[in-house]
Amino acid sequence: MASACGGGCPNPKPTRSGKCPIDALKLGVCADVLANLLNLKLGSPPVQPCCSLINGLVDVEAAVCLCTAIKANILGINLNVPVSLSLLLNACNHKLPSGFQCP
Questions:
Q1: Which of 11, 32, 66, 67 is positioned for an S-S bond with 102, CB 3.0–4.6 A?
Q2: Cross-referenced SMART domains, in alphabetical order (predicted)?
Q3: Mutual orientation of helices 81-91 and 59-71 as an angle, nearest 10°?
């Protein structure tokens, strides 16, 4: 069967590999979002461009990426990893996979 794209369609399927397909250094933009969430400032923190980096990933990939950034202290602050991870994922409309622990 011929494809409507002639074989040139992008393949947006996530890998579900449990690996982070993003350069973790780029996730430093999530620091402001997390700082706002942890300081409980009134109003909604600006979640872009942090969430735009992980949108399109399955939840486990998003969690692995954010774990990598948090554990490597790329965000520049000492954090409680499970709480921080959950806050960031929720802010970006992702869910922490059941039983997930940072590698």
A1: 67
A2: AAI (SM00499)
A3: 130
Q: Tell me the pLDDT tens digit for each residue of 62-74.
A: 999 888 877 776 6
Q: What is the spatial distance between Cα 100 and Cα 103, in angstroms, rounded to a whole number?
A: 9
Q: Which two tokens stand for residue 42?
A: 């009134």
Q: Among residues 30, 69, 68, 73, which one has the least CA distance to residue 52?
A: 30
Instruction: Give the separation between CA 74 and CA 56, rounded to whole angstroms.
Output: 22
| Number of helical H runs and strand E runs in the chain | 4, 0
Please calculate the CA angle 30-74-16 and round it to the nearest 5 degrees.
Answer: 70
Helix (H, G, I), strand (E, B) or coil at 63: helix
Question: Distance between CA 76 and CA 94 in Å, rounded?
Answer: 23
